[in-house]
Amino acid sequence: MAITGLGPHGERASAPERVLLLPEDMTRARASGFRVAIVLHTLVSDWAKQQVSGIVGMLGNCGVAVIDVVDCAFTPEVQIEALERLIGEAPDAIISLPVANSKVVAAHARVAAAGIKLVLLDNVPTGLLPGKDYISLVSADNFGLGKIAAEGLSPHLPDGAEVGVLGYDADFFATNEREIAFVKWMQVNRPDVSLRVQRFPALSEVAKTTRNLAQAHPALAGLFVVWDTPAMTAAEVLETIGRRISIATVDLGREAAIGLAASEPLVAIAAQQPFRQGETAASIVVTALLGRLAPAWVALPGLAVTARNVVECFQTVWRMPAPREVLRKLSLVGPAR
Amino acid sequence: MPTTATADNDGHPRRKGRPRVSETAAPSLVDILNLVRTEQATTRQEIERHSELGRAVVADRLGTLGELGLVDESELGTATGGRAPRLVRFAADRGRILVATLDQTAIGVGVSDLAGSLLMEHHEASELTQPVSALAERLVTLFRWILERQAEPQLYGISISVPGAVPDGGEALFQRNTPGMLPGWESFPLVETLIAAFDAPVWLRSSVETMTMGELHAGAGGGRSTMLFVKVGKRIGAGLASDGTLFRGAQGAVGLIGSVPVTVGDRTGTLEAMAGSDHIAYDGKIAAEHGASPILADHVRRGGEVTALEVAQAAQMGDAAAIDILAQSGRLIGQVVATLANMLNPALIVLSGSIAQTNDILLAAAREAIYGACHPLVSRDLQIIRSQMGSSSGLVGAAIVATESLFAPPMLRDWIMAGRPQAHPLFRQVKDEIAQRKTIAGNIVRPPDV
Question: Is residue A124 domain-shared with residue A45, that is, in the same domain?
Answer without folding.
Answer: yes
